[in-house]
Amino acid sequence: MAQPVWDHPEPLALSSAPVPEYGTGSLADLLPTLAAGMGVPGMTAAIPELAPADRACVFLIDGLGWEQIKAHPDEAPYLHALLGSSRGGTGRPLTAGFPATTATSLASVGTGLPPGAHGLPGYTVRDPATGELMNQLRWQPWTEPRAWQPHPTVFQLAAAAGVHAAQVSSPTFENTPLTKVALSGGTFLGRLTGEERMDLAAARLAAGDRSLVYTYYAELDGAGHRYGVASDTWRGQLMTVDRLVRRLAEQLPPRSVLYVTADHGMVDVPFDEEHRIDFDEDWELRAGVALLGGEGRARHVYAVPGAENDVLTCWREVLGEQFWVASRDEAIDAGWFGPPAGIDERVYARLGDVIAAARDDVLLIASQREPNESAMVGNHGSMTPAEQLVPLLEVRS
């Protein structure tokens, strides 16, 4: 009997997706490792390459991927010279976690938990209580923060153990729900300029015998989204970042370590139909879909009840050469959101019935429902090295 003919090329094997190194080398493992070195109860030194320090500062630069540093030695000479120091001198990067996006990564950093446990598993995800999409970066519509993410942050646990904990960032972020659920604990200190933040972060490090300080810079990511990582504007921002890192490193008090990391990298996607597939103009992809969540390179797809298998089949046929397309349970079992046994029950239904992660230089836009996001030059979210790999550059005093 003749075998049926598959009308489309074979979809990407899910086993080929480069799953984040949860438990040994992801962003979620960083603060627990530093806190364990300071004797904070309940913390585990999950990244074995990192030597303990009494005072630790994490400088997170939004959008500064590992591959972007490697590609720009002229614009970032100081950062480039530190590449060999990454991950305890191994010269290896960390993995951001999936999806590689700001809300998810900041929650992973602050809670020390993978996305499947902390519950911010994407840019937008369905709220099972309302059936609506919840934007976890902008926190729209309003949802009670502690109900959405109930776990304590590492900063809270460190402060309770007598560690001097502080966050130094833009005043804009002091009272945002994302800050409250991901980065609260200790003292928040708002400063407008990058130079002020560097100086104050160094001072906060020196303020305690044991100190855990976090500081942040967002403008590089903004330049990448608007103009792309190939733009002069982005390269100019990278030069600024390089100077800021050096400024902080040169002020480290004794017994300190500075770690420079990021929440994700970025890729530029050309503006043509081959590279930008428009969900709002594609009847096949829309069929059976009740809600489209996530972002262009990491989609959560919520099916009309009963249509889950049909949507999965269709998305694999249409996108399977360029995207890893998985059912919710397949993505969980593959470890995309963390160890399968660690997926919190309250998080399960937030994940898409179908999850699509881009492998190729493509974007699944939604020009009508997401006009601003669809116009971005630089994008991120998936598991490719350009998006997933982030530095852990180290300077010790």
List the defining traits of the structure above:
32% helix; alpha/beta; six-stranded mixed sheet; 397 residues; four-stranded antiparallel sheet; globular
Could you describe the 3D structure shown?
The protein is an alpha/beta fold and 397 residues long. Helices cover 32% and strands 19% of the residues. It is built from 18 helices and 18 strands. Strands 6-5-7-1-8-18 form a six-stranded mixed beta sheet, with helices on both faces. Helix 9 links the parallel strand 5 (164-169) and strand 6. The longest helix is centred in the middle third of the chain and has 18 residues, at 232-249. The N and C termini lie far apart (73 Å).
Can you summarize this structure?
The protein is of the alpha/beta class. It has helices at 30-37, 66-70, 77-81, 86-89, 102-111, 115-118, 145-148, 154-160, 177-182, 194-206, 219-227, 232-249, 283-286, 308-319, 328-333, 345-348, 371-374, 385-388; strands spanning 55-61, 94-95, 124-126, 133-135, 164-169, 187-190, 211-217, 256-261, 267-268, 276-278, 289-295, 298-303, 323-327, 354-358, 363-365, 378-379, 389-390, 393-396.
Summarize the helices and strands and which ones pair or pack.
Layout: H1 30-37, E1 55-61, H2 66-70, H3 77-81, H4 86-89, E2 94-95, H5 102-111, H6 115-118, E3 124-126, E4 133-135, H7 145-148, H8 154-160, E5 164-169, H9 177-182, E6 187-190, H10 194-206, E7 211-217, H11 219-227, H12 232-249, E8 256-261, E9 267-268, E10 276-278, H13 283-286, E11 289-295, E12 298-303, H14 308-319, E13 323-327, H15 328-333, H16 345-348, E14 354-358, E15 363-365, H17 371-374, E16 378-379, H18 385-388, E17 389-390, E18 393-396
Helix pairs in contact: 10-12, 11-12
